[in-house]
Amino acid sequence: MYRFLLTRQWVILTLISLLLIPTMIRLGIWQKHRYEERSARNQLVAEALHAAPVPVERVTGPGHAVSRKERYHTVTATGTFDTAHEVVVRRRTNADNEVGYHVLTPFVLDDGRVLLVNRGWIPADGPSQTAFPKIPAPPAGKVTVQGRLMPDETTAASGIKDIRGLPDRQVMLINSEEQARRLGKQVLGGYIEQTAPQPRGGTPEQISDPGKEDAPLNYAYMIQWWLFAAGVPYGFFVLVRREARTRAEAAEQERTEEAEPAAV
User: Fold this and answer.
1) Cα–Cα–Cα angle for 136, 185, 102, nearest 5°?
2) I need a labelling partner for 79 at 20 to 30 A (CA). Which of 59, 71, 141, 254 fits?
C-alpha cells in the first residue's frame, strides 16, 4: 500500500520534511536566545534608569569604555558649557523621524577635564547641511547638568560610517577619544544625553528615554517555530494517509470496472 513512498516525488517530499524539522527547531532556539537577550537588555535599562543619580566622575574617566551595565545610568556634573568648541552630529533623527543634528557641547568640569554633553536634536537649516547651524545657547556660567551615560559611538556598533572631510565643526559619531584629540584636553570616556536642566523654549529637543525592546514578540516566534516543527511530521502523516487512501480507492474502482463485463 505504501510503495508509492519510494517514488521520486515522495522521496523528495520526505527529505524536505526531514530537513524542515531541525531547521525550524534551530529557528525556535535562535528566537529563544533573542528573547533572553532582549529581556536582559530591558532589565539592565530599567535598573539603570531607576538608579539614583551619581557624580559622573564616579563612573567614568579619560579613556574609560562605558560598559553595558553603566549605560543609561543617570549621572550629574558641575561645570560650564564650552560653546566655542561645540560641534553637531549629522544625520540624526528626532521622535518624528525628521533628519537634523544632535548638538554636542563640551562641558568643562571644575578640575579642567571635559564631559561631552549631547544637548539634544535640532532641525537642519537646509538641504546642503554645509553651514554650521544656529544653535540655542546653553545656560551661562557654572551649572549642574544631569543625563544618561552613553558609550562612545563606533561604526561597528552603530552602523554609521565615519565620513571624513565634513564641513567645519560637524561629525558623524560621538567619540570621546576623537574629541580629546580635537580639544587637546582630557575627556571623560563616553558622553551623556542631557535630561536636566530643560532647555528654554524646548530646543534643542532632548532625547527621549530608551524604549523597551519587544522581547515577548521573540517568545511568540519561538513558540510558532516549534509548533511548525511539530506540525511537519503530522502534516506528512496526513498526506501519506490521504495518498494511500486515494490509491486504494482508485485500485478498488479499477477492479470493479474490470469485473463488470464478466458479470454481463
Assistant:
1) 30
2) 71
